[in-house]
Every structure is written in structure tokens, then in C-alpha cells.
């Protein structure tokens, strides 16, 4: 079993990796979520990422 870490963006209820994953379709993976931005600043970051500011 291979283990690696990738960054992903959560948008519209879906986690999207920032890089292409070399995994077969329908592979089941285990996900551990750790926010890289303090929760109080998350709305500001999301607004910037969506271009609404």
C-alpha cells in the first residue's frame, strides 16, 4: 500500500486534489483532513480563491 500526501481544495462539497493522482478509477482511499488555514480566516481565503473580493 502506497502512502503519500497531496493538497486539495474543498469546493461545492468535493475535495479536488491540486495534482493528478495516479490511481485507478474507483480506488477507495482513506482521507485525513487538516486545514492549512485557521478556521477564522477560512471565509476570507475562500472569497479570494473564488475571485469575489
Would you mind describing this structure in some detail?
- The protein has one domain.
- It has 53 residues and is of the alpha+beta class.
- The chain has a two-stranded antiparallel ribbon.
- Strand 1 (8-11) and strand 2 form a beta hairpin.
- It has one helix at residues 42-50; strands at residues 8-11, 14-17.
- It is 17% helix and 15% strand.
- The model has no long low-confidence stretch (mean pLDDT 83).
- The chain is elongated.
Computed Rg: 14 Å
**What is the strand tally?**
2
Distance between the termini: 42 Å
Weakly predicted, low-confidence segments:
none
**Percent helix:** 10-25%
> What pattern of helices and strands is seen along the backbone?
EEH
Strand adjacency order, main sheet: 1-2
Count the domains: 1
Largest sheet: 2 strands, antiparallel
Strand content: 15-25%
User: Roughly what is the average pLDDT, rounded to an integer?
Assistant: 83
